[in-house]
Amino acid sequence: MAREHGRIKARKRLARAKERQANARRDYAHKVARRLVNCADVIALEKLSLRAMTRSAKGIAQCPGRNVRAKVGLNRVVLDSGFGLLRQMIVAKAEEAARTVVEVDSRFSSQECSRCGHVARESRRRRRFRCVRCGYGNHADVNAALVIRRRAQLARKSGLHPAEEAGRRGQDAAA
């Protein structure tokens, strides 16, 4: 009886700790969203599909998945980080403050050079980006942010949806 009572108390303590963690995450997202909306008239966000990013790696009996445990851990980190919550808050606060939010296609943003626009997997080495065509170098995250900013600017100028703009640019390069 005493053991079960201790288990119930431990379960309640864990639930309360998880609730505090969620409250802290929500509070931080509110603060970051407010700061972003106050500092910028136009906010560019990557159009990420969290559902696709956190899809299971288990596979099926005939074709089992690889690195399933690693994928489970990655999914937990992605979902715990609160990307979706932060995006929702940015959009809501931007609408309140009459700011513009532009969602940009995120494909190849980490492999595209922000200076010349060349896309190559070899340009990205862990946290460093060095373009194989023009030699431009920067931190990979900074380069990707510059690419996203340029895509958002192009989308606003052309009036096209950012995904359409990225697709059209790919067709121009192929021609």
Protein described:
The structure is a single chain. With 175 residues, the chain is mostly helical. The chain folds into 2 domains: 1-105; 106-175, no CATH class. It has 6 helices and 5 strands. The radius of gyration is 21 Å and the shape is extended.
H/I helix tally: 6
Helix content: 55-70%
The biggest beta sheet is recorded as:
3 strands, antiparallel
Number of beta strands: 5
With strands numbered from the N-terminus, the spatial order across the biggest sheet is: 3-4-5
Query: Which ranges are low-confidence, i.e. pLDDT below 50, for 5 or more consecutive residues?
Result: 162-175
Distance between the termini: 76 Å
What count of structural domains? 2
The average pLDDT score comes to 83
Principal-axis shape equals extended
**Rg estimate, integer Å:** 21 Å
Write a concise keyword list for the protein shown above.
2 domains; 11% strand; three-stranded antiparallel β-sheet; two-stranded parallel sheet; mainly alpha
Quick gist of this model?
With 175 residues, this protein is mainly alpha-helical. The chain contains six helices and five strands, in the order αβαααββββαα. Helix content is 58%, strand content 11%.
Could you give the topology of this structure?
Blueprint: H1 2-39, E1 42-47, H2 50-53, H3 68-81, H4 83-96, E2 100-105, E3 124-125, E4 128-130, E5 137-139, H5 140-158, H6 162-174
Parallel strand pairs: 1-2
Antiparallel strand pairs: 3-4, 4-5
Helix pairs in contact: 1-4
